[in-house]
Amino acid sequence: MLQDRLIKAFSEGLEISKDLVTDELSFQGIQEWDSVGHMTLIASLESEFDIMFDTDDVIDLSSVAVAKKILEKYGVGPF
Amino acid sequence: MLHSSLTLQEQVNDVYEMAKAEKREHLELELNRLTRRHYECCRPYNSILSARGYSPEDTKSLEDIPFLPVRLFKTNKLSSVVDEDIIKVLTSSGTTGQQVSRIYLDKETALLQSSALIRIMQNFLGKKRLPMLVIDHASVIKDRNSFSARGAGIRGMANFGADLTYVLRDEDMSLDFEVLEAFLKKHKGSPILIFGFTFMVWEYFVQPLLNAGKSPDLSQAILIHSGGWKKLIEKAVSNETFKATLKQAARIERVHNFYGMVEQVGSVFVECNHGNLHTPAHADILIRSEKDWTVLPPGDEGLIQVLSALPHSYPGHSLLTEDRGILLGEDDCTCGLKGKYFKVLGRIAQAEARGCSDTHDRTEAA
């Protein structure tokens, strides 16, 4: 399921428990999702869904909820 | 008076499009706002400005915005936000024993920096992210809570890259030819981004390639580099030599240096296709006399003052650097980009002498 894959990509990219991955989870909201975590998160999402974000989207991707919207632009979803 | 209400974000978005009259209006508004903000929120800044006779009612023209010497960030904790709001502390690169600058970022300032850097770099790299080769070793970003200038630079540039690959070995900074060749094979035919610090690119990338007699085809690459020319000037390597050697060693023809500092991340001045550094819409420079700090006209050499609308969490919006430079003009560079365009000539002699001797003298900066 798409939702599971999204949770997996976040959990692996940020090295956090799957329970923490909710729509509200946001950039700088937890220690693990800082600018370094963001780099690995982007790589994790891209490899899970086999896409490549544009630079604008890398910056805009500031929460799990926003990530879903952005992923839809790349043909992943709807969630 | 300001006729249109332009947000800071809109100004950032304009990058190299905004003509000087409009830019001055918006920048003066933002910089005066920041001076007031830091005067109210940062106690040491308040003391310094009070001693200079500043009053928060004052509205200053660009040339009269108070400026701090950049080294003040080495000796004082200058923050305009409560500690709980600080999400990152940036430090300058300093050799052992030297005091380093500490720059306190809150979320708002960090986001402004990222988005400004994106607008600037998109102009040279496009919106598509490119496979990215970093001329450094991976452990340079391992302490995630306190970044060195090098770490911060790489983190910032990483937003433009995909398949981020560090090409130097952790142990001894030697060039890993296997990693390099695998990366080039994987991305054959596609444009790639190479990022590194000027001296590192020269010493740990170009030299090993020349010594090994290897000349990989990197004609698709765009090299972005920064960090200053001090070490290369000592080796008598000019920007022209640097570029010519890159072309010879790896067929790299698109090379952009940028001038920036950890005290103003996000306000970087990138070298255009015609070899000049440019100010983006949200930042500016002034050249000041080393004798009396008066503002000098284009063509005169002096100290570089950097102004930026981004620093909200620390009073770093107007800084006198220890770099010498020369203003060449504004809005009329032959490359077509707007903004002031200039050259950096190197560090002032005094700063070099201090860097090599005792750097624990606090009195001079206080």
Automatic annotation (TrEMBL), chain A:
The organism's superkingdom is given as Bacteria
Q: What is this protein called?
A: Acyl carrier protein
Q: Which InterPro entries match?
A: ACP-like_sf
Q: Which organism is it from?
A: Asticcacaulis currens
UniProtKB/TrEMBL annotation, chain B:
Quote the InterPro entries the UniProt record gives.
ANL_N_sf (IPR042099), LuxE (IPR007534)
Its recorded name reads Acyl-protein synthetase LuxE domain-containing protein
What is the species of this protein? Asticcacaulis currens
Q: What's the short name of a Pfam family annotated to this entry? A: LuxE
Domain Acyl-protein synthetase LuxE, which positions?
Answer: 19-359
